[in-house]
Write a structure and sequence with these properties.
390 residues, 37% strand
Length: 390
């Protein structure tokens, strides 16, 4: 790998070698403004022989998107491309893959330990019924990558992006489509809603509906943030734009996605409307994976800022309120810029998902992924960071 550069980092991708790292060491520094006073820095959730993930058949993987399993009070973690062995050795399991946890410790004193899987009988398996690297009736797809998961009303939902290629031409995002899958047995069996949002190779390059985050249900609405899918983590149309829409939970369950209301700037004012598409609420640096969750009464946002080469956070009182300025939390290079000095470091980082069981709005747990994009290269895992103050 090349040494880190103080210039913007073009072409960052989690599926090709990231030309941005200065080593694979996980930072062990304590966040200056974190509460509690000591943050658990980078506890790995997989890719270590004999760990709890391997007990359930997952040797190495990424993402580990956390969600609350409201039917039993447990926690689920949805992974992306997964293998039975560490460093992507062994058998390719597929994507997405789920592990579960009976109790989560929001203080970070006890790192996440997995106590189950889906399907529940036997080792972890690919959740969705499709064949990777095949045409499953929609066009060729490499795999289906989860973006977020939520459970409410006895049904579990995963929003995903179907990846057509990890190496698209310049200006294209490489997606086939995005969709929503659901399970009525809490993750064992999955079905796909018939409606899909067309992606790059279906003629809608850089769709703003490519990647979603479920912010939660509030005042009778399910609030959803969405943005372009970024397989390459940087593309020509992505200025870091994020949009917001909402939908009644019953309409969402029925697959009546056209019933959404959009947060849009219309007639010189921000308003909820169904007459125009959503307006970008945030823009700026290129943004990769992102996560929005209500923790207590505060909405918290975390995302991979590609230009800043860091995981950053913001907060707001409501989904449709003004968000705070971004705050850098975990960095790929803690020597540049000055705002990176002393921050926990994870070379080749991405992801940055907020745990909905976080201790408080001022003490978040984030799940951050790390991989340099090279096959069988260590580590390929997700890391738990606690005590993050957004």
């Amino acid at each position: 790998m090349s040494t880190a550069s103080p210039s913007p980092r073009p072409g960052i991708t989690r599926r090709n070698a990231l030309k941005t790292g200065i080593g694979l060491a996980v930072g062990t520094g304590v966040l200056a403004n974190a509460t509690p006073a000591v943050a658990v820095a980078g506890a790995s959730l997989c890719d270590r022989p004999g760990d709890s993930a391997s007990h359930w058949g997952v040797g190495s993987s990424d993402l580990a998107i956390p969600y609350y399993r409201e039917h039993d009070g447990n926690w689920g973690y949805v992974f992306g491309d997964s293998w039975t062995g560490i460093q992507q050795y062994g058998v390719y399991i597929g994507s997405p893959v789920m592990l579960t946890q009976a109790r989560f410790d929001p203080t970070g004193a006890t790192p996440i330990t997995f106590t189950g899987t889906q399907p529940a009988s036997g080792p972890a398996g690919q959740l969705f019924d499709y064949v990777p690297r095949s045409n499953n009736g929609h066009g060729y797809e490499v795999s289906r990558i989860p973006n977020d998961c939520i459970e409410f009303g006895g049904r579990t939902y995963i929003q995903y992006t179907s990846v057509a290629t990890w190496t698209p031409p310049s200006g294209y995002d490489g997606s086939l489509m995005s969709g929503v899958a659901y399970s009525d047995d809490y993750g064992a069996t999955w079905y796909d809603y018939p409606y899909h949002w067309a992606g790059d190779t279906q003629g809608n390059n850089q769709s703003m509906y490519g990647m979603w985050s479920f912010a939660g249900i509030d005042d009778g609405w399910l609030y959803i943030f969405s943005k372009r899918w970024n397989g390459s983590h940087r593309n020509t149309a992505d200025g870091g734009a994020i949009q917001l829409f909402r939908i009644r939970p019953d309409d969402f369950r029925a697959g009546n996605f056209g019933a959404q209301e959009n947060w849009a700037y219309l007639n010189s004012a921000w308003q909820w409307t169904g007459s125009v598409p959503p307006s970008p609420i945030l823009s700026g640096n290129s943004i990769g994976e992102f996560s929005v969750k209500r923790i207590g009464s505060t909405y918290c946002m975390s995302y991979f800022d590609v230009s800043d080469y860091s995981i950053r956070t913001r907060t707001a009182d409501r989904p449709d309120a003004v968000w705070t300025s971004p705050k850098t939390q975990i960095v790929g290079d803690n020597t540049w810029p000055i705002g990176h000095w002393g921050k926990p470091q994870v070379a080749n980082l991405y992801g940055g998902y907020i745990h909905p069981g976080s201790a408080s709005p001022s003490s978040l747990t984030l799940i951050v992924s790390q991989w340099d994009g090279k096959e069988h290269s260590a580590p390929y895992w997700a890391l738990q960071y606690d005590g993050i103050r957004p």
